[in-house]
Amino acid sequence: MHLLYFRIKKFNNDLYEGQLMTSLDRIGLFSVLGRIAEGVVAVIGSHCEIVIHDFSDLEHSAVAVFGEVSGRKPGAPVPDLEFITNGLDADTPDQLNYRIKIGSKDLQSSTVWIRDDEGTPIGAVCINIDYDELKQVSKTLERLIAPAKEVPS
Question: Going by C-beta distance under 8 Å and a sequence separation of 6 or more, which residues neighbour residue 99?
C-alpha cells in the first residue's frame, strides 16, 4: 500500500521530526496545496475541480475550491461525515480514480489524504473531473467518422 506523506521543512531545512504541526505550519501546507490545485485546474480546464479539505473543522472543512464541477464552495462541510469520523484512520488508502454522481453529473474522482507525521489524515485533496462535454464531443466525432452510406451509381 502506497501512502503519500507530506514532510514540512523549516526555513533552516531541519525536518519537523517528532514535533506537532503548528497552526502556522498547517496554514502554510494548505496554502501550498491551494496554489498547486489552482495551477492544475488552470491547465486542465473548466471540467476539473479540486477541493482542499481541512479536517480541523468538519462542518466547514472545504478551505479552498478551484473549479466549479460539484457546486461546493469554501466553507462547505466534508461530504461524508460518517466515514471521516468513524472509518478514516492511518491505514486508510487514498481513493483513486473512482466514479461518483453529484446531481445529474457523473464524475471521475480521486481523494488523496493529507496526513500528519504519524499518518493520521488531517485533510484531503479531492479531484473531480466532469467528462460530460467530452462525451458529447466523442459522440459527434463518432457520427462524423462513421462509414458513409453508399450512393447508388
Answer: 106, 107, 108, 109
Distance of CA 125 to the CA centre of its chain: 4
One pLDDT digit (tens) per residue for the chain, 153 residues: 223 333 333 344 444 444 455 666 777 888 889 999 999 999 999 899 999 999 988 999 999 999 999 889 999 998 887 778 788 888 999 999 999 888 888 899 999 999 887 888 999 999 999 988 888 888 999 989 988 777 777
23: nearest Cα among 49, 57, 46, 51? 57
Estimate to the nearest angstrom the gap between the alpha carbon of 96 and the chain centroid: 10
Residue 98 burial by Cβ neighbours in a 10 Å radius (0-12, 13-18, 19+) = exposed
Count of beta carbons in the 10 Å neighbourhood of residue 60? 14
User: Is 41 within 8 Å of 73 (Cβ atoms)?
Assistant: no
| Residue 129 φ/ψ, nearest 5 degrees | -125, 130
Are 87 and 118 contacting, i.e. CB atoms less than 8 angstroms apart? no
In this structure, the number of other CB atoms found within 10 A of the CB of residue 33 comes to: 21
